[in-house]
């Protein structure tokens, strides 16, 4: 007999934190333009944040396992895509993605999104990356 059980869709979120330094600076702008646009965040010696990252997946709940994906797998993917590549690093100097683009929180979200999609078994399940740069500055990216 075929399994006619309805497939339910669920949203699954895992949160992590990482610390990193950066300097908001664009090589495509003059020093004056960089200072005007980025203000104190353009300080030549940079500054740091304790980022909070939420990775949300969306997909069908498997009727056998009862999960969208195994949370351990999501934890492992975040470890590779976020923690190993960015935690306690200088984003501008240590992460190649930021060598030619400003390390804004928007670009950090894009980097995490792209990194996760490269290593996930089912990248189409990735729904959202949300980053809290501070309590008041939050970026959401959905591809």
From TrEMBL:
InterPro entries: 6-PTP_synth/QueD, 6-PTP_synth/QueD_sf, PTPS_His_AS. GO terms for cellular component: mitochondrion. GO terms for molecular function: 6-pyruvoyltetrahydropterin synthase activity; metal ion binding. Its EC number is 4.2.3.12. It holds the Pfam family PTPS. Its cofactor is Zn(2+). Keywords: Lyase, Metal-binding, Tetrahydrobiopterin biosynthesis, Zinc. It comes from the Eukaryota. Pathway: Cofactor biosynthesis; tetrahydrobiopterin biosynthesis; tetrahydrobiopterin from 7,8-dihydroneopterin triphosphate: step 1/3. It is an enzyme of class 4 (lyase). GO terms for biological process: tetrahydrobiopterin biosynthetic process. Belongs to the PTPS family. This is 6-pyruvoyl tetrahydrobiopterin synthase. It comes from Ignelater luminosus.
């Amino acid at each position: 007999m075929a399994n006619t059980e309805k497939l339910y869709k669920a949203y699954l979120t895992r949160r992590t934190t990482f610390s990193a330094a950066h300097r908001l600076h664009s090589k495509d702008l003059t020093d004056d333009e960089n200072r005007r646009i980025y203000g104190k965040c353009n300080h030549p010696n940079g500054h740091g944040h304790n980022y909070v990252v939420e990775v949300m997946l969306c997909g069908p709940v498997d009727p056998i396992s009862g999960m969208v994906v195994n949370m351990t797998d999501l934890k492992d993917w975040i470890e590779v895509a976020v923690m190993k590549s960015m935690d306690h690093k200088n984003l501008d100097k240590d992460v190649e993605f930021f060598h030619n683009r400003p390390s804004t929180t928007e670009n950090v979200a894009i980097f995490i999104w792209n990194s996760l999609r490269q290593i996930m078994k089912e990248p189409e399940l990735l729904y959202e990356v949300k980053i809290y740069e501070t309590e008041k500055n939050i970026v959401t990216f959905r591809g």
